TrEMBL record:
Its main location: cytoplasm. Keywords: Cell cycle, Cell division, Cytoplasm, Mitosis, Nucleus. The lineage of its organism: Eukaryota, Metazoa, Chordata, Craniata, Vertebrata. It is found in: Cytoplasm; Nucleus. Residues 476-496, 613-687 are annotated as: Disordered. InterPro entries: Cell_cycle_regulator_Mat89Bb. GO terms for biological process: cell division. This is Integrator complex subunit 13. Belongs to the Integrator subunit 13 family. It holds the Pfam family Mat89Bb. One of its GO terms (cellular component) is cytoplasm. Residues 484-496, 613-669 have a biased composition (Basic and acidic residues).
Amino acid sequence: MYCFYLFNCLFEPSITRSVAAPHKTRVTGVSATSHFSLLAHTTSCMGTGINMFAVSHKTVFVVDHCPYMAESSRQQVECDILTKSRAQGMIPLAPISKSLWTCAVECSMEYCRILYDVYPTGKLVNYVVSDSEFHSLNGWRQEDQSTQELMSALAAIGPPNPQEDPECCSILHGLVAAVESLCSITEYQHEARKALMETADRVANRGRIICLTNAKSDTHVRMLEDCVLETIQEQNKLAAGSDRLMPIQQCELVLVHVYPQGDDTLVSDRAKKEISNVLISEVHSVRAGRHLASKLNMLVQHHFDLASTTITNIPMKEEQHANTSANYDVELLHHRDAHMEFFKSGDLHMAGSTSRDSGLKETVTLKWCTPRTNSVELHYCTGAYRISPVDVNSRPSSCLTNFLLNGRSVLLEQPRKSGSKVISHMLSCHGGEIFLHVLNSTRSTLEDPPSISEGCGGRVTDYRITDFGEFMRENRLTPFPESSGRDSSGKFPSDRAKAQLERHTRYWPMIISQTTIFNMQAVVPLANLIVKESLTEEDVLTCQKTVYNLVDMERKNDPLPISTVGSRGKGPKRDEQYRIMWNELETLVKAHVNTSERHQRVLECISACRSKPAEEEDRKKRGRKREDKEDKAEKNGKEDDKSWQDSERLKGPQEKEEQPESEIIKDSPDSPEPLNKKPRLTEEVQVPEKAKGGAFYFFCLEAKAPVDVYSLPALLGTSC
């Protein structure tokens, strides 16, 4: 237990020896109230109408402090185990027994600790102690939501006085104070009412009262329920005419009858029963000690939608034997959405293992995997939930939390008898708080993205990936300081961010082949400035210089980065390229022309530069005629090449047919050469090749007699 030895020392009058307080391991920190958290909670609940605040928003603990709560629980706790070795003749320490008050305080503090760990904000607890009067230990402020504050207040109250008159003490004082506390407005409700203004009545006021007492009988329980119902009706009448109070729409009363072990209970368990349209009551009769701890543990899970996960096979070195290690288990509580993937996939067989403390509570078992310290390795995470150990002061829990708080991460796998390993969760620490991350164990869309080649963009390399990364960097969202709210124009930071994103996306082509200006370095200054909400005179001058540079490029007839992906031929002509560029630049500036008067001046500069004089048009026409002549000459050259290749292909078979007729076969090696024999080439003359200048070169290989170059056409049957 979290406060076992501490409360025995503070509240048990029979224990006089000093016992050191255990190490208090804080798993998650409790953050203070801030305007940002209040606003975030309020806006997240918008649109839900009357369901804006659930019953779990307010919880009032009413703990009985009457003399009968000083009675022993009769569950003995051995103290002799604290000494490892005992000298001979030393009398062993006698076991101790906690009182009903100590058991109730310990279990209620565990309830609060788990709640604060999993929900640092938004879930509030008011702790009330009742004897001859009520004692409210804290309020609804977020600053008061801390186990340290509650423990200090409980230590000041002390244990019940067995000598006090029982007739003067009653749990009714605390129940009446609890109802009055539920009518008070919390900071979250106040912010929601201010945000809704005229429809402030839509903000609901619900709450829960958990009463730990020692009831006499079922009749006594019904009397307590009637008292709570009457008090709610009276307080609702008062709240109807007050701006500082809110009427209660729904109240859940959880009566926990605590009695010593070995006694027979006179109070029967009862499930939820609707007493009226405002009050719902349930009764639990529980023995003090570990049974009460298990009951409160199950209640906190039920009240706040928590679930249990047990991590098994955690390797841990033994204290007695440093060279050996043993496997331990640690049970964690978290929001039940962390198990949602199991229910979706149908893997419900893992939820069958029971917890160590109770045979009624279910837990999901996950196995420890090798810790990963590589922060670069990213996992497809679908959710992250705060955790709280069930036994926070045990050695396995303390070692696990310290291991994670040091920046390590632990992967958790599903226990399977066969098949491959399935890693479904990960434990990791962020900002001093431990989270259970849900990893996607099914096929991930991030691992195998769908092919985008079938879409409008074509190949992946056709997209402006680098530009999109820069676009995201310029429009990323960051937390804004609390002190800086609305600006001079009355806009929130989120509204300004949305407006900037809208301006940047008015004209933003996604594919490289769809844009010309975004592929030109010369247009970058204008493209970066034109999306601004306001331009200075210097910005306008920079944009005008950019336009003049483009005019100079067009005058010099410089090439433009026009993409020819998916097109045949040379692409558009030079003047057509510049026409496309000017049209796109005008489209970009027109998208922002209504932003300010200076944006209009930039558009006027572009329009003025596009209206060319007559001599400029004549020069463009002459340039187009010259390009047409070059294209025509190149086309004729290609046709000559084709006719030459066709004639050579037809001439080849004719030469092969004439060659056997002219060939003379020698009678013997000593026969003389014929007098009229022409020089014969020993190898076949190669087909003439076209050189860069258009001349033809012929190569004569191994001629028997001198060959005149000018006689080669006659030999080949062609003309130069």
